[in-house]
Design a protein that fits this description.
about 200 residues, alpha/beta, single chain, Rossmann fold
């Protein structure tokens, strides 16, 4: 059964005194794959943060979302003094307490086997990105809000992530993400060009 996970009506988004977006209408249901597109500075990240209810973004209009939300920002949000396994355990995807086998399986999905106990600070930028994205392979929230998830990933890593998006949507979840490149998600991908909603 289809359920609405996020809905906005006549939404205006401000960052400080600047109006970024105006008059946005959007409904995201289970099974949705939505890319937020537009040029630099149009407000993609700010809108994603508004959807997540994060500070420093002010909204006017109607915005409702489910309580079951996972937000992942552009930065990996990892502690360099901890291992990948420790990072995932202390900041799991959603409200869960993953087992060691679940953590190792999530890391393996992104080709990080053998690095489970390495010092995160010594990993490359691409490897750190993979560790952060391994959260998406743990028991998780239904609505994912992901800012530039493909950054620093090679072609194989991008394909793995695209497949995970499809699986999550098929399982009754939804994904909203920003990206400067169009994801290969077929006809089910919706692209929302925020240039049409740019503020004055």
């Amino acid at each position: 059964m289809t359920a609405t996970l996020l809905e906005v009506r006549d939404l205006d988004v401000y960052k400080g005194p600047r109006q970024l977006l105006t008059g946005l209408n959007l409904t995201v249901t289970t099974g949705s794959l939505l890319q937020l597109a537009g040029g630099n500075g149009v407000g993609k990240t700010s809108l994603l943060r508004a959807f997540a209810g994060l500070a420093r973004i002010e909204v006017f209009g109607h915005l409702s979302r489910c309580d079951d939300v996972l937000y992942s920002g552009h930065a990996p949000a990892l502690k360099g003094t901890m291992s990948p396994r420790q990072n995932l355990r202390t900041h799991p995807a959603g409200l869960c307490s993953p087992s060691d086998s679940e953590l190792d399986k999530a890391l393996a999905a992104l080709n990080m086997t053998g690095y489970e106990d390495a010092l995160t600070a010594r990993l490359s930028a691409g490897q750190q990105r993979r560790v952060a994205l391994a959260r998406l392979f743990l028991p998780s929230a239904r609505l994912w809000l992901l800012d530039e998830p493909f950054t620093a990933l090679d072609v194989a890593g991008v394909r793995v992530l695209e497949n995970r998006f499809r699986e999550h949507a098929d399982d009754g979840g939804a994904v909203i993400f920003t990206s400067h490149q169009k994801a290969d998600l077929g006809e089910r991908l919706e692209v929302l060009d925020l240039e049409s909603y740019r503020g004055p």
